[in-house]
Amino acid sequence: MAAHKRILLKLSGEALMGDDAYGINRATIVRIVREIQEVTQLGTEVAVVIGGGNIFRGVAGGSVGMDRATADYMGMLATVMNALALADTMRQEGMTARVMSAIGIEQVVEPYVRPKALQYLEEGKVVVFGAGTGNPFFTTDTAAALRGAEIGAEIMLKATKVDGVYTADPKKDPSATRYTRLSFDEAITKNLQVLDATAFALCRDQKLPIRVFSIFKPGALKSVVMGHDEGTLVHV
Ligand SMILES: Nc1ncnc2c1ncn2[C@@H]1O[C@H](COP(=O)(O)OP(=O)(O)OP(=O)(O)O)[C@@H](O)[C@H]1O
Ligand SMILES: O=c1ccn([C@@H]2O[C@H](COP(=O)(O)O)[C@@H](O)[C@H]2O)c(=O)[nH]1
């Protein structure tokens, strides 16, 4: 029995690489899609915001002298590529998905229109939001907070490369310890960078809880949707 009627799933772009150095690993994306399918079979409505770190990050372009806004638009286009790959894999697995883009590229995907997204969700279709917020200088974590609030998701699930929120980045500090739960204020004050501060602040203001968990742990997504105490809960 699912604990949540509607969720916003933020999927790490980098997680799609699997063991590859770049891009989309076929076996990995199929595994992730099957996990999402299991959740839809519980009756939960699923919207996805996909990152782009497996292809391009604006900050990388900025660091080699590119105009940052231009680099960010490239990053947003990278997320559209991931969204298309995800929706196509869903189609191959027998699911119905719709991609909506925050930037206008109508020959490729339909634009984000909130009532249409709500209609798709009510029809049981998975909605994949591409192009982040549509604005440079933001991230797909903030897009996930924004879309999650807009569609009335009960929770934002951040499926990422680590299994929760730690006292410091566990990839840099092996002595860091994992929180089971913590408040938004604590996450912001301690500058915990598992999500950016804008995303934390928006979720706090909209009272949208976030659960951070590992996308690499098989069955973790279903466990979270069933209300089990997986990863870290960030709450008001
Ligand atoms: N306090 C912390 N607790 C947990 N992870 C942290 C913390 N501080 C930094 N991190 C890092 O944040 C990363 C997750 O965020 P990141 O924005 O890099 O990825 P993502 O949004 O999941 O993916 P992508 O940007 O590829 O779509 C983790 O891999 C982890 O190394
Ligand atoms: O609202 C947004 C969302 C994303 N970007 C750019 O895209 C890349 C990839 O997104 P990640 O969140 O890092 O996975 C990001 O680095 C930005 O360059 C954006 O500009 N606006």
Number of domains: 1
Average predicted confidence as pLDDT: 97
Q: What is the β-strand count? A: 9
- Distance N to C terminus: 25 Å
CATH architecture: 3-Layer(aba) Sandwich
Give the name of the CATH superfamily.
Answer: Acetylglutamate kinase-like
Major β-sheet annotation = 9 strands, mixed
**SSE string, helices as H and strands as E:** EHEHHEEHEHEEHHEHE
| Number of distinct helices | 8
Keywords: ATP-binding, Cytoplasm, Kinase, Nucleotide-binding, Pyrimidine biosynthesis, Transferase
Main location: cytoplasm
Domain Aspartate/glutamate/uridylate kinase: 5-214
EC number: 2.7.4.22
Note down, in words, how this protein is organized.
With 236 residues, this protein is α/β, with parallel strands linked by helices. It has one domain: 3-Layer(aba) Sandwich (Carbamate kinase). Helix content is 38%, strand content 18%. It is built from eight helices and nine strands. It has helices spanning 26-41, 58-63, 68-92, 114-122, 140-150, 184-189, 197-206, 220-225; strands spanning 6-11, 45-50, 97-101, 110-111, 126-130, 155-160, 181-183, 210-214, 232-235. The structure holds adenosine-5'-triphosphate and ligand LLZGTKA7. The site of adenosine-5'-triphosphate (ATP) has 19 residues, from helix 5. UMP binds at residues 52, 72, 133-140. It catalyses: UMP + ATP = UDP + ADP. It is an enzyme of class 2 (transferase). Belongs to the UMP kinase family.
